């Protein structure tokens, strides 16, 4: 019997790692996995240039017919765990641009929706005819619903903290005001025991305060590199929509500016309207967002972009400075997704920070907490 560890190394290395098996052949399931990975990674031109082969040379003959994309999808679903399948999907559509993974009706009817496929649909929907687009919409709806359910819980948790903490008489442990109690009783500190004797405990009442209306204006760069942030911006806007004290706007931009606020309560419809790619005029989009502000001191402008400006960077910095000086909170996010791993123009981001913008990267939950913190004041 082949050592499972050696077998995994053979699968990882391809034919080049055959020596690690000591002349033994792969088992039936491992051989099927090897064939499925070779169908995808065997087309890697970089490996070919370096003389590395995942499997033997492809030749004509009377052997087994070449796998179709549908066959391959069926095979990987049967052979690999879900996490591996999602990675294979992602590599197929992003690394090797096998577009029929999301444009072939036969494939779309059986494929299991996941975030990698959602991104692929958004990138390729302009290639789809109406029939294929209807099938692809299933992927968008399923993944968006999963993301919304998860984020909605985080948003509710963040906004549950927007309650007044006034002194109260109801003595419950959850209402115990530790800070005020310690401050009032510090005079009874006992050095020998290291303890404070509490003579008068204090409590607060957790009654929801009246929330004055705040504007949250999300300006989202829809260039191709920002697809994760576009998805999470749509979902975040939908979760903020209708919350007490919050009025949400969502604006997408490249060199043009498109106000998508009318669809903010339907992130699926919104994402189907987004057109990824094109240039970037961040200053123009920021100027549009500035014009939407009604009450400067009750507005949060969230600019989600990689800050690679194709327009006028001096104008952008000037608009951000004017917003900050009028009392508006400006948040520049280089990424808004679950990983919050930013790739951005640090020089321009620093210039924005120098005039008062908060600049960084956030997960959607962290953005919700930031909004809740300011709305609840």
Question: How is this structure best described in words?
Answer:
By secondary structure, the chain is α/β, with parallel strands linked by helices. The protein folds into 3 domains: 4-111, no CATH class; 164-207, no CATH class; 214-375, Rossmann fold, CATH 3.40.50.410. The protein is built from 16 helices and 10 strands. The protein has helices spanning 4-13, 28-41, 45-49, 69-79, 82-95, 100-103, 105-108, 115-124, 130-159, 178-185, 227-240, 267-273, 282-292, 313-325, 346-354, 364-375, and strands at 164-168, 189-190, 195-196, 203-207, 214-221, 246-253, 257-259, 299-304, 329-336, 358-362. Helix 9 (130-159) packs across helix 12. It is globular, with a radius of gyration of 27 Å. The N and C termini lie far apart (67 Å). Residues 56-65 have low confidence and may be disordered.
């Amino acid at each position: 019997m082949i050592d499972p560890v050696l077998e995994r190394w053979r699968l990882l290395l391809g034919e080049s790692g055959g020596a690690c098996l000591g002349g033994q052949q792969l088992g039936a399931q491992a051989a099927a996995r090897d064939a499925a990975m070779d169908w995808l990674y065997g087309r890697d031109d970089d490996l070919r240039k370096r003389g590395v082969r995942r499997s033997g040379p492809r030749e004509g003959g009377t052997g087994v017919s070449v796998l179709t994309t549908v066959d391959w999808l069926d095979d990987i679903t049967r052979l690999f765990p879900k996490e591996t399948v999602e990675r294979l999907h992602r590599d197929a559509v992003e690394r090797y641009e096998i577009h029929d993974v999301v444009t072939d009706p036969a494939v779309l009817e059986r494929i299991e929706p996941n975030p990698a496929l959602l991104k692929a649909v958004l990138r390729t929907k302009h290639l789809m005819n109406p029939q294929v687009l209807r099938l692809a919409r299933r992927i968008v709806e399923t993944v968006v619903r999963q993301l919304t359910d998860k984020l909605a819980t985080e948003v509710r948790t963040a906004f549950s903290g927007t309650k007044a903490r006034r002194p109260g008489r109801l003595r419950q442990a959850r209402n115990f005001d530790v800070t005020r109690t310690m401050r009032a009783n510090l005079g009874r500190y006992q050095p020998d025991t290291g303890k404070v004797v509490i003579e008068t405990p204090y409590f607060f009442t957790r009654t929801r305060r009246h929330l004055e209306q705040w504007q949250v204006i999300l300006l989202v760069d829809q260039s191709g590199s920002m697809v994760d942030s576009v998805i999470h911006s749509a979902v975040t806007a939908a979760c903020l929509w209708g919350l007490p004290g919050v009025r949400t706007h969502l604006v997408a931009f490249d060199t043009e500016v498109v106000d998508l606020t009318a669809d903010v309560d339907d992130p699926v419809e919104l994402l189907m309207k987004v057109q990824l790619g094109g240039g970037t005029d961040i200053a123009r989009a920021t100027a549009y967002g500035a014009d939407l502000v009604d009450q400067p001191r009750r507005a949060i402008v969230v600019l989600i972009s990689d800050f690679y400006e194709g327009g006028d960077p001096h104008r952008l910095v000037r608009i951000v400075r004017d917003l900050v000086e009028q009392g508006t909170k400006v948040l520049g996010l280089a990424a808004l997704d679950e990983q919050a791993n930013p790739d951005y123009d640090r020089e321009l981001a620093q210039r924005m920070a120098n005039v008062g913008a908060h600049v960084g990267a956030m997960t959607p939950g962290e953005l919700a907490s930031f909004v809740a913190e300011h709305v609840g004041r």
